[in-house]
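Methods: example folding runs. The two proteins below were folded one after another, and each record is reproduced exactly as written to the output file, sequence line first and structure-token line second.
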Amino acid sequence: MQLYLGGYLDYYNPERGNWLEVKLSQPSQLGEVLTKLGIPMSEVHLVVLNGKLVDISKAIVSEEDELKLFPAVGGG
């Protein structure tokens, strides 16, 4: 699975890049995958799976997917 970590979420990539390749042996719940990667679900605000906005708590991901995660944006 190709995983894009937007904004400061790239902090959770050991290589500190935005893109991360994640090997999955079978389709998995996104929450489980994020837990294994050490990415807190509370830090993720938007999830785009294969170009479509999805609910983080219901998303199932597989090896062929492209997933983009984005944190909430704040400012003044």
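Second run, written to the same file directly after the first:
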Amino acid sequence: MSDAAGCGVDWWGADGQALRRVLADQLHAELGRLRLGSAGGPPPWLWTDETPIGGTPDGIDSLDMLSLSAAVAEMLPEAGLDAPTSARFGAWCDAVASRPVRPPRSITFRSSGSTGAPRRTTHDLGALEREAAALARLVGARRRVVSAIPAHHAYGFIHSVLLPRHLPDAAGRPDVVELRGRAVPQVGGLLRPGDLVLGHPLFWALLLQGTSGPLPPDIVGITSSAPCPAETALGLRRIGLARLLQIYGSAETAGIGWRDDPARPYRLLPGWRRDGGSDDLRRDGLLVPAPDRLAWVGEEFEVLGRRDGAVQIAGVNVSPEQVGAYLARHPAVGAIAVRPMRPDEGVRLKAFVVPAGAAGDPVALEAELRRFAAAGLSPAERPGAYSFGAALPRNMMGKLADWISGEPGGSP
């Protein structure tokens, strides 16, 4: 795929194992969306050629087949996939592998939808291959790639599919080993010297919590999808992780910057530069709005927080972030997330609260927070619903996720 990628490597789908991992995750996620979270059958990392999509030979119908083929065609817009007549996973792999008459030049990802409706973003594969090549130079030769992230999202695709093909290794491309489905206490025992471990902040925090002894030597990690708390990064260093590469960016931009020290600013990845004196960036000459407010120190930057995320409540611009910051000042609030209600919930803001310590009865706490909100927030800013739980809702990638108002614990 030298023309498409600009890196002298073939089409990523020519690697049958990589293609299988991407397709399994994409099909499983789409079926889960169609079935409102219940995809049926084994998890995607256990799929074989004979695995029926949907869990049983008749687990999907003709409408499902159309939706699944559309999801695959959306991801690979140049593949021209015809829906297989079989529900077997192997038939889908064969259909995609045999279809392209030339290497695809782009790929489309959906955001997780953890901050609203999923968005579709199409990336030039050449740019992603160059990012993977730059990361390969940062991590150096690795014996294996051990992944705890899905392959059908932007970071999972770049790090677990493209990156291994660029890693320098005299013995050839390193094997990719799946970590999902493993109990966290087992993970430390599965790692070997020279591994590259791919994860997200929640994975790394759980690994730190569940690891009793030191990690094997010469293990490098990559974390992406959300900010990694400094205490997590420093804790991993204490138990022997040689290096943790933190990637900054988004599903829409892919990787923008990196750092391996939580006390240092991020450095721009190759191809990126600051656009004059603004927060905006340029990649390969094209203007790209930064996802966050950035503070620049020369050519390096710190991330200050999301750009204006104001929403309209009853025609008034309201900042959920600022509302959350105000409510977090109440001494009974340990942590809080504020976001707009879903359309079926109402037209106001809602809040999910983790009480501080033994905060007592949630009913009494809600009444107290409503009084506190009335004292310092405008009517449009005051949350219309409160949920309570032991931890803020997060998805599998560790990002803050939505929840259903009124459900016990604010079930996501």
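Comment on the second run: Residues 125-306 form a domain with the Rossmann fold fold (CATH 3.40.50.12780).
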